Amino acid sequence: MRLKDKVALVTGGARGIGRAIALTFAKEGADIVVADVNLEIAQKTALDIEGLGRRAMALAMDVTNYEAVEEGINKILDKMGKVDILVNNAGITKDNLILRMSLADWDAVINVNLKGTFNCIKAVSRPMIKQRSGRIISIASIIGLMGNPGQANYAASKAGIIALTKTVAKELASRNVNANAVAPGFIQTEMTAKLPEEIKKKMQEAIPLGTLGTPEDVANVCLFLASEESRYITGQVITVDGGMVMA
Ligand code: NDP
């Protein structure tokens, strides 16, 4: 058991990559808070976690609203006693070329992906500093490293998460709080399922390992970053992309 009795908060944990992270952590002994805008699906995921013999809490939380996030963290502290691990996974896309991208779509993506990540980090930092330990894992994207036509808002938000991660890592290192980012490539989820077949085929051709990744591929790296095995790693970006981006 690599996360025995740890408490992990996974934002956007109801489905997709967040759900895989929540289940992977629970299998390794963690109690899980599934925080999502969609309470009904979050409750379903929480039930699946309880089925693995762990404590689970479903929380309706919109990461864009700082007051709601702070209130959520207080509820977690009341019910679960602590927060050891934060996974900033909640994310959205609203793609369009810059000329056609509405200001509302720019704001929406920056608000969920970047401000939401900041809000959650800000709200957990006090309890983590107090307990002199913590792990913050933020899900970025290879698009934040390499850019992509039609995704100016998404690319900027994910690059922002990477810079935010490095800053948090430097600010909190002396308190034994590690912060790292995971940058997935193309992963099979509802987010990528809606892409046209032709684009998916082109993507696949650009992946050295030849296939799309699974949510579990991302979850396994998060598990490593949440565990004691990664104690000497902070401020890093780990790509999970079948070799698409090589530094
Ligand atoms: P999904 O859309 O499948 O899941 C995202 C979850 O986040 C949903 O449950 C969604 O709820 C929730 N969510 C959306 N907005 C908020 C909010 N404001 N507050 C709280 N929860 C919210 O996405 P994926 O699993 O595919 O992606 C997860 C993360 O991984 C994202 O950050 C994404 O950018 C990143 N990523 C994904 C890749 C991929 O190929 N799939 C590649 C690279 C990065 P609801 O749907 O009900 O609104």
Q: What topology emerges from the helices and strands here?
A:
Elements: E1 7-11, H1 16-27, E2 31-36, H2 39-51, E3 56-60, H3 66-80, E4 85-88, H4 103-131, E5 134-139, H5 143-146, H6 152-172, E6 177-184, H7 190-193, H8 197-205, H9 215-226, E7 237-240
Helix pairs in contact: 1-9, 3-4, 4-6
Q: Mean pLDDT, rounded to whole units?
A: 97
Q: Flag low-confidence runs.
A: none
CATH fold-level name: Rossmann fold
Report the sheet with the most strands, covering strand number, pairing sense and barrel closure: 7 strands, parallel
Fourth CATH level, the homologous superfamily = NAD(P)-binding Rossmann-like Domain
- Number of helical segments with 4 or more residues: 9
List each distinct ligand once: NADPH dihydro-nicotinamide-adenine-dinucleotide phosphate
Strand content: 15-25%
Quick take:
This protein is α/β, with parallel strands linked by helices and 247 residues long.
